[in-house]
Design goal:
15 helices; Lysophospholipase L1-like esterase; about 350 residues; five-stranded parallel beta sheet; about 10% strand; Rossmann fold; globular; alpha/beta
Length: about 350
């Protein structure tokens, strides 16, 4: 191309860019004059739990994971300094549970002089979508020997119009959040993702087919990095006809859906375990084998979702047996001087 033609092409390109800039600037001015504003930050996107106020006050917004605990980054910094041999990923059943510590204590009691360096990486409100992204970004680099995967509850709760996988596309990039043109684009994107007439309680946060895909991907990623995955089903004390009323007000289309839907998601965990040859700790069946009154009053909190220390003890025992049967216990042991990522020694908290 001759120098003259090159200059003409460059001039034409600059003219187009200038025209686009003027047009966008005009729209920006118009939107500001008319008072348009739409800022769908994460704290305004409804997940069920945590609710927007909790996200703002009790958590830290994360570009990839939506929200993390305030101590999350510190935990992983410590984990990089003192790598754990087993990482427990999951939702609030993992974050606030004690089965991680009880598992470590159980193993250590049978292996004098040895310790189980572990990291509890659970975060309340998380779905398997967030767990997958956490695994990719934060867990694989720790190079643990074993990762346990315990999700399900937040996956099947009803979303408020947008599935977890689409949330990132309606969040504003921080540096562009003040531009009304960008806000308009994001609003149009959000409206396009929500079914007409179903602004509240539309889809599940993670539909069944996506739940399956997320679990399969987590298993694959673990194995590609030499990590041994263990899948867990989510136990419950819920019974048909006795479902907690509060769940309907926020997370369910109908209380009648609760028990069968939860069991379907657990069935998916079993299917993925069977199809991929992954060790399965079937906690739902462990608790189903116990007297229902005992399960409800002795092992679960009132919500029928989270376990108390007695219930976590059963989880720890079941997980230990699963790992022993699959030859995994020896992989998580180190000399007793090893420290956990949370700063405790051995299997302590």
């Amino acid at each position: 191309m001759s120098e003259g033609k090159a200059r003409k092409a460059l001039g034409a390109a600059l003219l187009v860019l200038a025209s686009v800039f003027v047009a966008v600037a005009g729209v920006e001015v118009y939107l500001r004059v008319t008072g348009f504003s739409c800022e769908p930050y994460l704290s305004q996107v409804q997940f069920g739990w945590p609710h927007p106020k909790a996200i703002r006050e009790a958590y830290v917004i994360d570009d990839d994971l939506f929200w993390i605990t305030k101590k999350y980054r510190g935990q992983f910094d410590e984990a990089r300094r003192n790598p754990p041999r087993i990482v427990f990923v999951g939702d609030s059943c993992t974050q606030i549970g004690s089965y991680d510590r009880q598992f470590a204590q159980l193993v250590e009691s049978e292996r004098p002089g040895m310790a189980v360096p572990f990291l509890n990486a659970g975060v309340a409100g998380w779905s398997s979508y967030q767990g997958l992204r956490q695994l990719e970004r934060d867990v694989l680099g720790l190079d643990p020997d074993v990762v346990t995967i315990y999700f399900g509850w937040n996956d099947h709760w009803a979303s408020f119009g947008i599935e977890d996988k689409d949330v990132a596309s309606v969040l504003l990039p921080f540096g562009l959040s003040h531009l009304r043109v960008v806000q308009l684009f994001i609003k149009v994107r959000a409206v396009g993702l929500v079914e007409p007439g179903k602004i509240t309680l539309a889809r599940n946060r993670v539909p069944e087919e996506d739940y399956r895909a997320n679990l399969e991907r987590m298993v694959t990623l673990c194995r590609e990095h030499g990590i041994r995955p263990v899948l867990l089903t989510a136990p419950s004390s819920h019974e048909r006809g006795q479902e907690p009323e509060y769940l309907k007000r926020r997370w369910l289309h109908s209380l009648d859906d609760l028990v069968p839907m939860h069991r379907r998601y657990n069935d998916i965990v079993r299917q993925v375990a069977a199809q991929t040859g992954t060790p399965l700790c079937d906690l739902e069946r462990v608790f189903d084998a116990l007297p229902r009154e005992e399960v409800r009053t002795a092992h679960f909190r009132k919500d029928g979702i989270h376990l108390n220390p007695s219930g976590d003890r059963i989880i720890a025992q079941a997980l230990y047996e699963t790992m022993r049967e699959n030859g995994l216990v020896e992989h998580v042991l180190r000399p007793a001087t090893t420290r956990n990522a949370d700063g405790g020694g051995g299997g302590g908290a």
